[in-house]
Amino acid sequence: MPKTMTHVETATIDGVAHKRVAEVTAVGATEVHPTVAAAPAGSLTTRTDNNTGTVTMSSGHGVTTGKAFAFWSGGSRYGMDATVTGDSIVLDGGSGDNLPAANTAIRVTNGESVEFVIDGDYPLTGLVLSISGEVDVDGYVQIFDDEGTPAVIETYQLARNEATIWNGVGTNPFAGEITTTALFAHGHSAARVMNLIALLGTDS
């Protein structure tokens, strides 16, 4: 089914609005809209350095050893190595903001994986990623390839209350790849619907 995306940017200078409109029409789309649970809450009980620390969680938190996301008021990190022992999680590495001060409330999650399959060599004409509703925290979407051990193709950070939009101008971020899954995470205290929409093909 054809899809049309209208991308509008507006800048107001001295009370005068200046607008740019780009419209993309595709022959179809691959899209997912998972309801992503809140990341379990804990406390950064030890801060070793800017990207290393120990988080104490509540019992039954569900986080497992592996890659993890961390969220706190004013910041976040992704791709951290999480080593879980009971209710203690040692976090190390990754990318993003420097970890906050010790004893700061922090949320940690492995994220939620959803099937998301597209052939990157098929024309990608637009991409939209967002968190539904007014959300004053960060979110992330990571896209994985189809290798034997899937690797991250792209990581998208969803800034507070902002969608990430690519209107087809420039390099296709998935060129030469076949995607298999998307990993979603956010730092809100309640479940949130997250959106990933890839517009495919053109009507010309």
Written description of the protein model:
It is a single chain. The protein is mostly beta strands. It folds into two domains: 3-36 and 112-200, Jelly Rolls (Sandwich); 41-109. The chain has strands at residues 3-13, 16-26, 28-32, 35-36, 41-49, 52-57, 66-72, 75-85, 88-92, 95-96, 105-109, 112-115, 124-131, 139-145, 152-158, 164-166, 179-186, 192-200. It has a six-stranded antiparallel beta barrel.
Query: Regarding CATH, which class of the largest domain?
Result: Mainly Beta
Number of strands: 18
Strand ordering within the main sheet: 5-6-9-8-7-11
The N- to C-terminal Cα distance equals 15 Å
Assembly context of the chains: single chain
CATH topology assignment of the largest domain: Jelly Rolls
Strand content: over 45%
Number of domains: 2
Summarize the main sheet. Answer: 6 strands, antiparallel, barrel
Q: Count the helices. How many? A: 0
Mean pLDDT: 90
Mind telling me the C-alpha Rg?
19 Å
**CATH architecture classification of the largest domain:** Sandwich
> What is the structural class?
mainly beta
Shape from CA axes? globular
Helix content: under 10%
Low-pLDDT windows of residues:
none
H/E order of the elements? EEEEEEEEEEEEEEEEEE
